[in-house]
Amino acid sequence: MTTELVGARDLTIRYGRTLIVSEASMTIQSGDLTALVGRSGAGKTTLLLTLAGLLRPASGQLTWPNLDPRRDIGLVFQAPSLLPELTAAENVALPLRLRSVAAPEAYRRARAALGELLIEAPDAMPNELSGGQQQRVAVARVLAAEPRLVLADEPTGSLDRAGADIVLAALRRHVQAVDGALIVATHDEDLVAGLPQRLKLVDGVVRQGVSA
Fold it and tell me: Which helix (H) or strand (E) element contains residue 23?
């Protein structure tokens, strides 16, 4: 049985004076694996930030019936933004420590998440990792927090095909394990093909559906 995680009704989003989304209604349910597609500049990032509760819509109703947005939503950005003075494991554990998770548990979860992303050097500094490895560490940082809804903004843009496949597989395993949902904004056609649901953003209109 699915559970509604996000509900939007007549949602309008503006960035300054620019209309991003016009009176959209959509539902995100547990089990959804969704590709968010649209041209560059269409507002995919703005839509993700709004669904996460970080941007306020201009009008309409946005609810999270079975989520606490502060704890249950994880955001993966295109740039890894790792702290250079911390190891990979320390970068992943930091958000947990800031939430008062005890150090042994935080580092256990950090190392498990890094293992899911095939990072074999948890004690490496960011400058010792390739760009693709740094991005996988950033994904691990989100997964270690165990969110039910993962919103990922071009998470594979800097990765080769093998790295992109590792990330998508880890994201899918995670949301299935927590009975959650995944939305990935992407231009990667292979990634789109691996996600059964679609959100398409065109000229401010969001269309929700299932891929062929």
Answer: strand 18-29
